Amino acid sequence: MSDFVTLKNNTDFRRLYNRGISITNPALVIYYSKNRAGICRIGITTSKKIGNAVERNHSRRLLKEAFRSICPQVKPQYDIVIVARSKTKYMKSTRLAEIMLGIFEVQNMLETESEA
User: Fold this and answer.
1) Judging by DSSP bridges, how do beta strands 5-6 and 41-45 pair with one another?
2) pLDDT, tens only, 15-47
3) How far apart are CA 57 and CA 45, in angstroms?
4) Within 33-112, where are the H helices?
5) Which of 44, 82, 87, 109 could lock onto 104 through a cystine, CB 3.0 to 4.6 A?
6) Which fold has domain 5-103?
7) Which DSSP category does 4 fall into?
């Protein structure tokens, strides 16, 4: 899988916040649950605690690029919401990708060689 679909509906975000599994890190929070669509769907959120609009957009771009680099390794059956935290804007996308990869590996969300 080389690409992902973005979550846009508020109902999808609320469903993940209420029923999804959450993992926290000083740089980000990830909510996820399995879906029936068979594709990976992702949503990225930033709050005003991050800073002004420029800083929030920068954080979203960093998270999107970090996820794009590891997307082929993620199993294509998850809905994922990534919430930026205050440290996100100071990190590089490669470091954020390492953090996401570590979290996804612990949660068994990555494809193994036999599954690919």
Assistant:
1) parallel
2) 999 999 999 999 999 999 999 988 899 999 999
3) 10
4) 53-70, 93-106
5) 109
6) Ribosomal Protein S5; domain 2 (3.30.230)
7) -
